[in-house]
Amino acid sequence: MEFSGIPGIFMERWCFVGKGGLYKACVIWEKDMWYLFYNAKNKENGNWNEQIGVAFSKDLLHWERYAGNPVLRNGKNKWDCTFVADPYVVKDGDIWLCFYYGIGLMDPEDDFVSCGRWTCNI
Question: What pTM did the predictor assign?
Answer without folding.
Answer: 0.75
